[in-house]
Amino acid sequence: MNDHRRHSPIILSRRLISLFLLLSCSFIAGCSSLGTPFDNDGGDDRMVADDLGRTIAYEVLISGVDPQQKRLLDSLRETSTSLRLQDRPPPTIPGLYRRAEDDIERFQAVLRSFGFYDGRVTFEIHGGSTTEPGVIPSEPVVLEYLIEAGAAYTLAGADLLIVRPDQTDRRSMNDEELKMSGLPLGMPAEAGPIFLAEQKAIDFVRSNGYPLAKAGNRKVTANTEKKTLSVTYEIITGEKADFGEVTVIGTEKVDPDFIAGYRSWQTGALFSPEEIATTRRDLAESNLFDSVIVRPAGVVNDQGQIPIEIEVTERAHRTIGGGIEYSTADGIGANILWEHRNLFGSGERLRFDLDGSQLQQGLEIDFRKPQFYKRRQTLVIGGQGKEFNTEAYEGELADSFAGIERRFGEYWSATVGLMAEYSDLTGADSPNENFYLGGLRSLIRRDSTNNPLDPTSGNRLELAVSPLASLAGADTKFISVLFHGSHYLPFDQAGRYVLAGRARLGAVWGEERSSLPSNKRFYSGGGGSVRGYEYQKVGPLDENNDPIGGRSVVEAGMEFRGRVTDTIGLVPFVEGGNVFRKTRPDDLDMQWAAGLGLRYYTAIGPLRFDVAVPLNKREGVDDDFQVYISIGQAF
Predict the structure, then answer these.
(1) Quick one: 124 and 219 in the same domain?
(2) Which residues contact 25 (CB under 8 A, 6 or more apart)?
(3) What is the distance between the alpha carbons of residues 21 and 520, in angstroms, rounded to a whole number?
(4) Residue 343 — very low, low, confident or very high, per pLDDT cuts 50/70/90?
(5) Does 458 lie in the same domain as 413?
(6) DSSP-derived 3-state class of residue 548
(7) Which site from 58, 72, 126, 392 is most exposed, i.e. has the minimal number of CB atoms within 10 Å?
(8) CA 522 to CA 509: how far, in whole Å?
(9) Is-contact 126 202, C-beta < 8 A?
(10) Per residue in 76-89, pLDDT tens?
(11) Boundary residue ending a domain (298, 314, 330)
């Protein structure tokens, strides 16, 4: 018994050691296959590799995909883990295997999203001693994915399951609905269009007066024999509703009732998402808010109406700004502006513009009151006082205007009102008399451009008609008509390359040129007209080569705007124009100019530097070139 007691501890110790070694080996083996908590890319091999400071460099090759299927290839590359982490190579070959295995699932999901539901993905690793454990290849290995896309499934049918509160209807989508949803039968059964069609179906149901419509269960059925796919969209309509009361939240200084007045619907009208979008757009364009949200809020009440909530975040309502410009002919000019966009709490805008240059100096005042008695109707009051010192005329002018501006449609507006003007101007071939004019100013405008200082798409059209007559002083009576137009054609979605064109046409009826006030005649030439010629110098001149103006004008211009980098652009351009003595000119001879511009794009708009040369240079009249510097595009 004593011997047993002496030897027992020794026997137990050996057993414990054996058990410990067995558990340790099992743990180490598990670590080798599963990795450690600190690294999922190599286990204990990673620890050895880290000690050596070595990794497995590799290249990625995707084989089996038709090069014409660029979108599919791009999507595979974008989703690949091995490509994303290529600049951080793993320390071991097993780590690279794990990246490749992760990509297999990702690639199969991409194939399905493009309609390849039978696609197969495998991979191979080439190069180096990849089969020898613990050996790190000296050259980059090649990870090659072998993709068998198979036949693309096509769309065989699309059904709607409309779940209303009182009934459920199931039917196939008709041809018009399929076209509107972007789901022509026979199209590749790609996931993107199928998902988008569901949202379009919801929008269609909402447009029929169901504000709470939402998607239910979407069912997709594949026919592996015919390689087709059919989809059923379940749309839960909720209750049909009319527009209810409107509440406004988030206001600080703007009157909530004024904001609510922007709604484009009447209480009790059938709910419409289009009206919601119109109201949101109009509020955003008021320049009073940083953000605007218009949405149904709550449930449909007993009267069948749903309340609408308008949530706004106000922006600062005062602005001080300015700018400078320079040209070799006109010299330097500058302007300062001050603006208040919420003067009395209902979006009233008051703006002062002070301009000063070698050609003119003066002050302009503009007041606008939106929602004037009617939605999308604005009271406009303005005036200016200026002194001119140009080669065409010099002297003083003051005018005023009061009228109504009415917006209609998404891009159109019209303005009509009364104006009065006093001028005391002396110019070449013009009477040295004071003119007191009064009459009507009418304007119709369309603007679908995407940026006021740097448009890359859309167009601008403006037609102004002004019948004027003497109120006192020199007797005169005439009608002036002026048209401006510009169009912007982008060559890419980002708007980095744009072809821009413009035209200007004008005519005066009722008086001979010599009887017209100098400022009511037409002139051409300069930075905002035909670059390459001095300000107002295109057209008829007197014996001193001073411009005398005319009764009609024609201008045209085109430029190509291309960005070399994100901030630098080059703009070659050509422009032409002329001023004619008669309302209907006998011919349309034009004076042309060409040039090259440099643009530096900033957050507030492009800085413009243009050099232009006259192509029809007149000896003793026109300089060899003109230089223009300002903010914003030429047109």
Answers:
(1) no
(2) none
(3) 105
(4) very high
(5) yes
(6) coil
(7) 126
(8) 12
(9) no
(10) 999 999 999 999 99
(11) 314
pLDDT at 363 over 90: yes
Q: For residue 298, give the amino acid letter.
A: G
DSSP letters of 194-228?
A: HHHHHHHHHHHHHTTT-TT-EE---EEEEETTTTE
**From CA 593, how far away is CA 613, in angstroms rounded?**
6
Asked whether the beta carbons of 499 and 558 are under 8 A apart, the reply is: yes
User: What does the DSSP 8-state code read for residue 229?
Assistant: E
CA neighbor of 351 nearest in space, from 368, 361, 365: 365
User: Pick from 174, 203, 236: which residue ends a domain?
Assistant: 236
Please, which residues have CB within 8 angstroms of residue 490's CB and are 6 or more apart in sequence?
A: 456, 457, 497, 498
pLDDT at 29 over 70: no
**Is position 173 within any domain?**
yes
Q: 551-585 burial by CB neighbour count: b if 16+ within 10 A, else e?
A: bbbbbbbebebebeeeeebebebbbbbbbbbebeb
Q: Which residues contact 586 (CB under 8 A, 6 or more apart)?
A: none
> Residues 6 or more apart from 458 whose CB is under 8 A from it?
447, 448, 449, 450, 487, 488
Burial class of 213 by CB neighbour count within 10 A (0 to 12, 13 to 18, 19+): buried
pLDDT at 514: 85
pLDDT band, very low/low/confident/very high, at 139 (cuts 50, 70, 90): confident
Closest of 345, 344, 340, 362 to residue 353, by C-alpha: 362
Q: For residue 254, give the CATH number of its domain.
A: 3.10.20.310
For 260, phi then psi, to 5°, come to -60, -30
Between the CA atoms of 357, 359, 363 and 369, what dihedral angle is there, to the nearest 10 degrees? -100
The stretch 46-62 carries a mean pLDDT of 67
Alpha-carbon Rg for the chain, nearest whole angstrom, is 37
Please give the average per-residue pLDDT across 569-582, as a whole number: 96
For 152, list phi and psi in degrees, rounded to 5.
Answer: -75, 130
Pairing of strands 434-447, 552-563: unpaired
Are 273 and 203 within 8 A, CB to CB?
yes
Q: Domain residues for 91? A: 35-148
In a domain, 347, yes or no: no
pTM above 0.85, yes or no: no
Handedness of CA 271, 273, 274, 276 (dihedral sign): positive
Per the DSSP assignment, residues forming a β-bridge with 443 are 415, 464
Q: Residues 594-611: pLDDT tens digits?
A: 999 999 999 888 999 999
Domain of 614, CATH number, reads 2.40.160.50
Asked if residue 530 lies in contact with residue 524, where contact means CB atoms within 8 angstroms, the answer is yes
Question: Stretch 366-386: mean pLDDT, rounded?
Answer: 96
